[in-house]
Amino acid sequence: MILESIIVIFIYFLCFFIVGTYIKNNSIVDMGWGIGFVIVAWYTTLRTLNLYTSNLVITILITIWGLRLFYHIIKRNWGKPEDFRYANWRKEWGKLVIPRAFLQIYMLQGVFMFIVALPIILLNSENQSTFTIFGFVGLLIWTIGFFFESVGDYQLKVFKSNPENKGKIMDQGLWKYSRHPNYFGEATMWWGIAVIAFSSGASIASFISPITITYLLLFVSGVPMLEKSFAKRPGYKEYKEVTPVFFPWFPKKSK
User: Fold this and answer.
1) Helices assigned H by DSSP within 49-132
2) Angle, helices 108-116/2-23, rounded to nearest 10 degrees
3) Last residue of a domain, one of 129, 157, 179
4) Could you tell me where the beta strands, DSSP code E, fall in the chain?
């Protein structure tokens, strides 16, 4: 099942690479992130016919998350030019943009997708599973994460849709308690999924998934890039001083 999952993910991102290269817009890979997990989850579940409660619960949770994320990103990016990150890489890589994009954008995301999808892949590699009380704990953790990601994204969308907020820092709603509530939510969801998978019979390697996504969001592609892009905005320094970066908590009193 592991090898089959790798092949499915490779073909999936190869298709995105071909399209992205043809239209000269590598940021379309972002649109495929959520749906890719949905495909892997359903493929491994139906391929093995492991229709146990735990397997179906995780598959459904991944489907809910993946479809919402896909809708959110495609609605946000549709019709817009290539994202500034990919556009900068295109200029930086010059004549090597095609091979480097293939390896450093599409295939690298494929590697991360495989790692993050490990809970469902490993669970579907088992002959059977049992949904225990810890499965409900994992479900609760996932629900908390989904709340933070979906509500955080919605609040930010509403904030940005108001012309009066152009150039301002979002510091309302969940963003009052975390500078990146949506990223916190995404990491939390994968911790919940890993708990369900492990408690249902998957190996402890399931936790490689939430550890990886948490590390990426905190130290690589999530928080650091946004913090850097927001650094020069008016009011961000003050917002940063009183608001937790990732884990939600009550804001500090301003000095």
Assistant:
1) 53-77, 84-93, 97-101, 108-116, 118-124
2) 140
3) 129
4) none
The kind and range of the H/E element at 127 are none
Q: Which of 209, 105, 190 is nearest to 149 (CA)?
A: 190
Other C-beta atoms lying within 10 Å of the C-beta of residue 162: 9
Q: How many CB atoms lie within 10 A of CB 68?
A: 15
Domain count, the chain: 2
Tell me the residue range of the domain where 247 lies.
Answer: 131-205+229-255
Q: Tell whether pTM > 0.85.
A: yes
Q: Identify whether residues 76 and 135 lie together within a single domain.
A: no
pLDDT digits (tens, 9 = 90+) for 18-62: 999 999 999 999 999 999 999 999 999 999 888 899 999 999 999
pLDDT in tens, 156-196: 999 989 998 888 889 999 999 999 999 999 999 999 999 99
